[in-house]
Amino acid sequence: MTKDQRIKKRHRAEARFKLYGLLSIILALTFVGFLVFTIFSKGSDAFSKTTIKVNVSFNAEILSLPSNPSLEDIQDADYYDLALESINKLLLTSNPDDEKLLKKLFSPDFDLEIKNYLVKNPDLINQTQDINLTSSDDIDQLFKGNFPRDIPEDRRQVNDRQLEIFDELVAQDKIQKKFNNYFFTNGDSRDPELAGIGASLLGSFFSVVICLILSFPIAILASIYLEEFAPKNKITDFIEININNLAAVPSIVYGLLGLGILLGFMNFPRSTPLVAGITLALMTLPRIIIPCRASLKAVPPSIREGALAVGASKFQSVFHHVVPLSLPGTLSGTIIGLAQALGETAPLILIGMVAFVVDIPGSPIDPASSLPAQVYLWSESAERGFVEKTSATIMILLTFLIVMNFIAVYLRQKFEKKWN
Amino acid sequence: MNLGIFTAILLFCIFSYFFGQTTAKKLVTNQNLKLKTLPTYYGYFVALWCGIPSLILFAVWSLFEPTIIKTIVVGKVLSASQIEAGLTTNLIYQKILSYSAGNFTGDLTDTIKIGALAYAKITSLAYKAKLASILSLASIGFIYAFNKVSKNNNARNDVENILKWLLFSSSVIAILTTLGIIFSLLFESIKFFSSINIFDFLFGTNWSPQKAFVRDASAITAEEYLEIKDAFGSVPLFAGTAFIALIAMCVAVPIGLFSGIYLAEYASYKSRRTIKPIIEILAGIPTVVYGFFAALTVGPFFREFGESLGLNVSSESALAAGLVMGIMIIPYVSSLSDDVINAVPQSLREGSYAVGATKSETIKKVVFPAALPGIIGSILLAVSRAIGETMIVVMAAGLAANLTINPLESTTTVTTQIVMLLVGDQEFDSPKTQSAFALGLTLFLVTLVLNYIALRVVKKYREKYD
Fold first, then answer.
1. Among the residues of B344-390, which ranges form H helices?
2. Is A246 close to B284, i.e. CB distance below 8 A?
3. What residues of chain A lie within 8 A of the CB of B363, using their CB?
4. Do A375 and B292 count as a contact with CB atoms less than 8 A apart?
């Protein structure tokens, strides 16, 4: 091998090596892109729902309302017969089989929707009105084009007659896409078209707020102690090692801690944001202390010495000068820690936050779910509607996380002082 | 109720702050004393003495109140009436609580009525006692502090001493958390190991805890024991965990390491600043999202791909879970190794260039060996992450404990089993639920050792070049 050949070989090796590095970066970036793309392409459909326009005549006789009914009368009335009659008018047939099929086009709550409409507009009694009723999940998926129509009837969710009815309604322009308000306001449900993230959104909110209230002050005080006041001795070393190890303990172990101590030993109410918040706070604490200490450390000693020189006590120099200067770093560390807590699922499963919660929680001691737990719950259901809802919930969750991270980065870049 | 007490304490504190301040000012006007520090410190001093003891009492009381009330109520009910067959004390107590809250449905028995009466009596008594003791403690603190202030003490030093203790106790919470973890894991594990031999657990190769479902651990007969003795062999779980972690590391280490090297050595400052945060997005995505991705996209894809090749691939294959976990871990490896490589002194590189090495030769022969301890530390941290990772394996790996090394079959992991054993179970008295804590204890110890070694290695390495 001549010298030239050797050099060429070495340069080829150089180019190859560089290519490996570039390829692995591209691979990693592709993973990010692919993941986000799959989630978003599946989830975007969940923000709209399919409605069927139905002409409802609010006949006081069918509702058996008294003359001049009060709001309570309207609320107590039975709307099922009226609802059935209204949707049967869509077809103008009296074939009982058809009526059954027709009912299946709507969500099981169709009579409730009519009731809510009347409660909101009580003057409509004995008048007729076009109302957009939420369709069933099958019709929803059909209208969104997610169900193939050309496969054999027995493998379809929607049979041939229903397809006929559906096509007729589409031709009459009665089937429309609307913004899916249920997705944001409803709790969980067995029917995908009625299921929403209202309960889990509030549950997540309560948990994260409790986590913030507990972990932020303790983390700041602990990091001030360790960074500014702690004497160099065995106890301090032990605390430091402890914190570093706690930050790397698997999150599921915190779930066991919450289950064993909070639920088993202290009898806290199960499945509540209170317990979730405390568990998450214990988990987040070391993860906040570490960046807090780093940002305290970044404040140069000259600041402390300057304060001491003009007669401030050690406490005054720390609390009046060092802590305010480190605040951007501290806050951004806290926000990132909270973002992690928001996305955490495993400990919540163990303390029972994966409950099927229909009612929107009103306080932190009501049973609730949380966004990631909702993702886990829905991902177990096979219906296409739930897959869509799961992806949409992930989109909401990711949006929150991105916003929180963005705020953290912004705080640091905008307000942090550079000292050199 | 608790909120009321809390507000009362706060109001008392605010009041005592202003009281302390004015008392100090009065010392100046009435007795013509020269104050030792600023008047606000006297205010803080009184407020702290007023608030801290009463808040501590409040917290401790609130923590133990439910347990104590429960013991008393249950004791009363069960002595007042016969124990109903088939109902545990917990269930009765739940019924009493819901009846007291006014949303009880079901059979109303005398037990529940008596219990509810006792409950109402005890809670109101407890509330009064709580309020009285907290207020008196606050008053004692207030009087003590007021006495000191009127003697013109050095309030600033006193306040700072109190605050120093406050700071110290905040950092001790980290130790308490560790103790809490160890206590809660050990407590249940010891119960578990008293019914199942620890060696059967650690070295048994058959995991089928459903055999021991809903069986009172304290009353296991000899035959039952023989039957469940072999149900808790955790070897398949640890093998499965290690196997999935290995697959994950096979994905994460090459990609992460090469990305780290490229970012540290080849990328321009500008592209480094944009690429690094994008890769770190992967670390910020919640693991449940990866789990969903693995279960819904990657798993089925592998199955179909395997079918087209004529292979029998499980839709919950270890490969899918491991691959997705690997993707999740990439940023941990890449950022840490990037930092480590950056910490290698420039002089080493320049020495290598000076004798004519190319950039890649320098990296392979000089930078990489120098950074190796740090890189190994970061890989160890990543391994401990992979072992403790829960959601991906719960959603994408299997439930059956197979002892297999075929990546296309489904295996289960320690974390999956912990979740499966504890979901929906409230009673801790069957070996099935206790075994979850034993698994948790083993998991905790393994990750603790890994983290400890990793942190030590990284720290040692940093000191070497600082």
1. 346-354, 359-362, 368-388
2. no
3. 17
4. yes
Q: Which residues of B touch A217 (CB under 8 A)?
A: 170
Are A336 and A408 in contact by the 8 Å Cβ rule? The answer is yes
The closest CB to that of B384, out of A219, A248, A260, belongs to A248
What are the strands of the beta sheet with A48-57, ordered from one edge? A128-134, A48-57, A175-179
Closest Cα of chain A to B62: distance in Å?
10
Whether residue A214 is found in the same domain as residue A89: no
Distance from CA of A348 to the nearest CA of B (A): 10
Q: Determine the Cα angle at A200 with ends A196 and A206, to 5°.
A: 145
Q: What is the CATH number of the domain that holds A277?
A: 1.10.3720.10
Q: How confident is the model at residue B57 (pLDDT cuts 50, 70, 90)?
A: very high
Nearest-by-Cβ selection for A257 from B184, B262, B418: B184
Whether A275 and A327 share a structural domain:
yes
Instruction: Please give the Cα distance from B322 to B335 (Å, whole number).
Output: 20
Q: In this structure, are B133 and B263 located in the same domain? A: no
CB contact under 8 A, A379 and B295: yes
- Indicate yes or no: CB of A379 within 8 angstroms of CB of B163: no
pLDDT of residue A79: 80
For A341, the domain range is 198-415
| CB distance B433 to B425 below 8 Å | yes
* Burial group, residue A122, by CB count within 10 angstroms (0-12, 13-18, 19+): middle
Which residues span the domain enclosing B73? 2-153
The Cα–Cα gap between B399 and B17 comes to 60
Of A223, A246, A252, the CB nearest to B418: A252
Q: Is A303 on the interface with B (CB under 8 A)?
A: no
A345 touches chain B (CB under 8 A): yes
Please give the tally of structural domains in chain B.
2
Domain check: are A315 and A381 in the same one?
A: yes
The whole-angstrom separation of Cα A24 and Cα B251 is 10
End-to-end Cα, chain B, rounded Å: 56
> Same domain for B279 and B421?
yes
Residues A81 and A147 in one domain: yes
Structure confidence at residue A75 (pLDDT):
77
Asked if residue B216 belongs to a domain, the reply is no
Where does the pLDDT of residue A404 fall: very low under 50, low under 70, confident under 90, or very high at 90 and above? Answer: very high
Cα→Cα distances A162→A55, A218, A270, Å: 19, 61, 44
Return mean pLDDT, chain A: 86
Confidence label for A367 from pLDDT (cuts 50, 70 and 90): confident
Query: Of A151, A180, A209, which one is at a domain's C-terminal end?
Result: A180
Arithmetic mean of pLDDT, A385-410: 90
Q: With beta carbons under 8 A apart, name residues in chain B contacting A405.
A: 284
Average pLDDT over residues A40-58: 85
The answer as to whether B191 is a domain residue is no
Tell me the C-alpha distance between B21 and B41, whole Å. 8
Give the model's pLDDT for residue B290: 92
Sequence length of chain B is 466
Q: How far is A261 from chain B (nearest CA, A)?
A: 6
Tokens 């069986």 label which residue? B215
Q: Give the Cα separation of A358 and B4 in Å (integer).
A: 30
Asked whether A113 and A131 are in contact (CB, 8 A), the reply is: yes
Is the model's pTM score more than 0.90?
Answer: no
CB contact under 8 Å between B391 and A376, yes or no, is yes
CA distance B204 to B233: 4
Which of B173, B184, B419 lies closest to A218 in CB terms? B173
Our count of domains for chain A comes to 2
Q: Are residues B376 and B239 in the same domain?
A: yes
- Tokens 């709790």 belong to residue: A187
